[in-house]
Sequence to fold (411 residues):
Amino acid sequence: MIVRRSAAVLAATVVIGTALAPAAVAEGASPSPAPAIPSGLYGTSDPTYDGVWRQSLALLAQHTVGVKPAAKAVDWLAGQQCANGAFAAYRADAAAKCDAKTMVDTNSTSAAVQALAALGGHGGETGKAVAWLKSVQNKDGGWGYTAGGASDANSTSVVIGALAAVGTKPADVSKGGKSPYDALVKLSIPCGGTDGGAFAYQPDKKGKLAANADATAAAVVGALGKGLAGESLKPVADPLSCKAADSPQRAAQNGAAYLVKALAKDHRLTSVMPGAKNQPDYGNTADAVVALATAGHGDKAADAMRWLETHSAQWAAQSGPAAYAQLVLAADAATFDPRDFGGQDLVKQLNATGPAPASLPAETTASASASEAAKKKDDSGVSVWWIIGVGLVGGIGIGFLISARNKKQQP
Fold:
């Protein structure tokens, strides 16, 4: 699952580290108290590693389906920004100045840019954030999770989405003559092998590329110059295949072909963690759907969406706003109805994880009003017909009585 990308790895590291140190707990060491959840923040779990990320996804998903988020939810996200334009995963005290110890990162910053740009009215914040992102671009044209870190497909892709969100052409943002598209193409595995067309997260120490479904889903969208919400496109005419990646668009199509193969057997992706049993990967499956729809192959994602409809409810309920947001974005990209997703209203469930929205789409409000009116009409109709029925029965009874009386009076 994606919480996002490297943030999930950091969180997992903390969990694993805690699990490996029972002695410290046994000796009386008290765990750090869980931070208080701000009223404007979506979700109730510890936001230390994903606060800005899940808030950004929640706001972006709401905007995508026409929901206007609560002002305090938007203000909370904007208030997380540091003076230099960057965002950390979470700052408990947003009034305190950021310093060298504040762990800002490209993923949180880029996600916040995409959400705030979509909502509008935050040109100052997004402008500063993009300026910071440009200042930490690597010489290969890409970005790592942290400033100066080795470029990876996921981080580079989410930054591309941020650039596009503010109207900046990613191809024009370069360092050392390299653009972010150059970095992504370099991480694309050449055709010919089993995993040809896939993207690697990063090269290993020997420079070898290993297929990564998470990175592939992100890079397909990024290589096409789109953001986290992707885009629902008309089906492309060309059949899926792997060809020499001579352009970012071609690399994206190669990645889409890989994802279709990866989804073919079980209609889902699988989470593979060292030492753990393989599990269905709901988040990455949703992201793969967005990637395929954005690449013009939404029809190839239909089975994956139906699988998510049937199997994702418990995962989403346990995982919270980011999970609901991923499903909403996937459903929207694949032209499924997020308000009737396997019998679940994803939009309503997402809204319920945070402050009440400022407004709902007109059609939703109209539909609710029509439903309520229909209910009242039905209730009213039943009452009226009940009264009429009683009157008829009463009339019939009286008729019988009068008839009987008349018969008795006849000679």
User: Anything to note?
Assistant: The CA atoms of residues 253 and 295 lie 7 Å apart.
